[in-house]
Design a protein that fits this description.
The chain is of the alpha/beta class and 720 residues long. It is built from 24 helices and 16 strands. The termini are far apart.
Length: 720
């Protein structure tokens, strides 16, 4: 008792004993069969000895034993112990009290009393062990019975589901399947049926009847029946959603923990409430969605995942005033005034045409240099894919409405499109990939073979919009997809190489969450590796110069025309030339300035010559001496530009100048299209030149050639 009192009064726990100093006693531990019997017998012997020595009435010990028996019996009843357990514990108290009373009257120090006490202790230990084993078996049996009852209920429910859907599929699809298992989703929003198909049948027979099965089952709006292949070609998996989780708006998950390109980046959740992970090490992505479908929010969800990744650098191109990337940059710009500097959530933001060209040129330079500089690393790792990590991060180019750039007929946009396609085509192994967005899943957007081949991660945000949402072209081979199945903002269909197309919804991310993510992930962003940074040069190193980001701070600030740092934003101050300080370039600038100053004199001289020619009929002016050949370096600044007529259609940026007018006329012709001869008459060019240009446009996906012998025509992709 003294030890127990000391332990209770101690505020701090006793230090652990050193090894070899003896056992550590746990005074709060319960008694087992042996220690319990030993404690009971030694206690009874102590009470009997003290009571006999002090003359205590023997009846008191019997009264205490009876009280203990009654108390333990009541506790056992409350705990729902077995009857034998209650009887054994009550008998132990009564026998102990009876022995104490007898030994106090006849003397506890006799061999008869001690032998009897030892026999009582052995009996108590044996009874305790027996009752404990019985209680454990009884508890396990109760748990097993409960589980059997639950399993029986689930089995009955699964059998009912199996019978119902086997009959429904036979009635609607005309095939009889054998259902092997029914698995309910953990979120409670539906179930999956694993079934065996009859001989010769494929899962497509069920997939193409998805809408009919959903209607026959009276599923809520937003819930569908999707079908996919099973463990082998004779099995099928049928996913049935019963709760519409796409209707509610779910905020972006808090926590903002680190992610990796190799473990997947979440973009949303399925109808069964499971997250969808995208693996973009080798894949590009395409996100389409009309106005009001939640496409901008989806872009922010994508940027949030990239910002949380420890092995991704994000470069954003948004020619619509940079609105997609500004929320990820402004928190950093606003926090640099004091305290710890915050890095932007994106590594480079281009909002002008010239800055976008500079960004894409830098990406191409970095990718090509990586191919040469990392050959030793690739050989050491025995791989043809650059090992992406925090030290060598992947560059993700997020291009808002980039798919529209690829199909634009504008000359400048076609130049930009060529660079985008070059990035997609050449830089997969070196860790530079793209995420393109578009306003619709039309044939003009999906007509480019490069997009269809490389963008294996595809998202179609429908928002209930049916115009311009050709889901069969967006997800070839899929059946039963209808935009009205996802009529909510941020909802649509998504497919990855790892998971088939199905309904999904993007989380809702708000501006305050973007700010939180920028601050939470500031120290997590990787740095561009030294080899790539050296190849990127000043264009990348000065991307955050004050003059190049002046438009971010002040909407009225003028954007630099060439995307390079001018060093000054004062109007009227000429920007210094970047690159080599060539005499030829300085002389050219001087000639341009002198020419502008002498323009008035040239005009007066021209008029004077015209008057002399009219009155006196002078001879033609002799041909000028050809330009003297320069010696030394063959500088482009010293070479005359090639005349426009000498450049063929295949050498220009996407075709000759008249091609845009021809494509517009073909689009206006509708589904009938136009013959090459009609186009030649329209633009005033030779038929052979027109045929070559139209053929090249068809190869780029800008037109569709409809072969019909002498009646062959070219049709715009929107009318193909």
């Amino acid at each position: 008792m003294a030890t127990e009192t000391t332990t209770k009064k101690t505020k701090k726990p006793e230090p652990a004993p050193e090894p070899g100093t003896g056992p550590a006693w746990d005074w709060a531990a319960g008694h087992g069969p042996v220690t319990g019997a030993l404690s009971a017998t030694t206690g009874a012997f102590a009470v009997a000895t003290c009571g006999a020595a002090g003359g205590m009435p023997p009846g008191w010990a019997l009264a205490v034993g009876a009280a203990g028996a009654v108390g333990h019996a009541a506790a056992g009843i409350r705990l729902r112990n077995a009857g034998r357990t209650i009887a054994a514990r009550a008998a132990s108290w009564l026998i102990g009290g009876g022995w104490t009373t007898w030994s106090m009257a006849h003397g506890p120090l006799t061999w008869e009393a001690l032998g009897t006490l030892a026999a009582i202790g052995v009996a108590m230990g044996t009874a305790t062990r027996s009752t404990n084993l019985y209680e454990e078996a009884r508890e396990e049996e109760a748990i097993a019975a409960e589980q059997r009852q639950i399993a029986a209920e689930l089995s009955a429910e699964r059998r009912a589901i199996a019978e119902e859907w086997a009959g429904r599929i036979e009635r609607v699809c005309g095939i009889r399947i054998r259902i092997l298992a029914v698995e309910k989703w953990a979120a409670g929003t539906g179930f999956t049926i694993d079934a065996e198909l009859p001989g010769g049948a494929t899962y497509d027979l069920i997939a193409k009847k998805s809408a009919a099965l959903s209607s026959d089952a009276h599923l809520p709006h937003g819930c569908t029946v999707t079908t996919g292949p099973g463990i082998h070609q004779g099995r099928v998996l049928v996913d049935v959603g019963t709760v519409n989780v796409l209707m509610d708006e779910t905020p972006y998950p808090a926590g903002y923990g680190p992610l990796s390109l190799h473990t997947g980046i979440p973009w949303g959740y399925r109808s069964n409430a499971d997250e969808i992970l995208t693996f973009l090490r080798e894949q590009c992505a395409l996100v389409v969605g009309p106005t009001g479908s939640g496409k901008t929010n989806m872009v922010h969800v994508i940027l949030a995942g990239f910002a949380r990744a420890t092995d991704v650098l994000t470069w954003v191109i948004d020619l619509n005033a940079g609105s997609a990337g500004l929320p990820w940059v402004l928190p950093a710009l606003q926090s640099n005034g004091g305290g710890t500097a915050v890095r932007p959530g994106v590594d480079w933001l281009a909002s002008s045409y010239d800055e976008a060209v500079l960004l894409l040129d830098t990406a191409l330079t970095v990718g090509r240099h990586r191919k040469m500089a990392y050959q030793e690393l690739l050989a050491r790792e025995n791989t043809d894919l650059l090992p992406i990590s925090a030290s060598i991060p992947q560059i993700e180019l997020v291009i808002d409405e980039g798919a529209e750039i690829l199909v634009s007929t504008d000359r400048k946009m076609r130049k930009l499109a060529e660079k985008i396609l070059e990035v997609i085509r050449l830089l997969r192994s070196m860790g530079i990939r793209t995420v393109l967005t578009a306003l619709g899943a039309t044939s003009s957007v999906l007509g480019n073979l490069m997009i269809r081949r490389e963008a294996k991660v595809r998202v179609a945000l429908t928002g209930g919009e049916t115009e311009g949402m050709d889901l069969s072209k967006m997800f070839p081979g899929s059946r039963g997809l209808r935009p009205e199945q996802a009529p909510y903002k941020g909802a649509g269909f998504m497919a990855t190489p790892e998971s088939p197309v199905g309904l999904f919804k993007a989380w809702r991310i708000l501006p305050h969450q973007i700010r939180e993510i920028v601050h939470a992930t500031s120290d997590r962003h990787p740095r561009l590796d030294d080899i790539s940074a050296k190849a990127a040069g000043p264009a990348y190193a000065r991307r955050w110069d004050a003059d190049r980001i002046a438009w971010m701070r002040d909407p009225n600030a003028s954007l630099p025309e060439d995307g390079t740092s001018t060093g000054s934003v004062v109007p009227g101050v000429e920007a210094p030339r970047r690159g080599l300080n060539l005499t030829a370039l300085r002389e050219q600038d001087q000639r341009e300035r002198d020419g502008s100053a002498a323009s008035t004199e040239d005009q007066l001289a021209a008029r004077f010559r015209e008057q002399i020619d009219k009155e006196f009929g002078t001879a033609e002016e002799p041909r000028r001496t050809p330009r003297r050949e320069h010696r030394g370096l063959n500088l482009s600044a010293l070479r005359d530009p090639a005349p426009e007529e000498a450049v063929g259609p295949e050498e220009r940026d996407g075709g000759p100048e008249w091609l845009a007018d021809a494509i517009t006329a073909i689009e206006a012709a509708g589904g009938a299209g136009m013959k090459p001869s009609a186009v030649a008459d329209l633009v005033g060019r030779s038929r052979q030149a027109v045929r070559d240009a139209l053929k090249a446009a068809a190869e780029r996906g800008e037109l569709v050639y409809r072969d019909n012998g002498p009646h062959s025509v070219y049709v715009h992709p929107d009318h193909a």
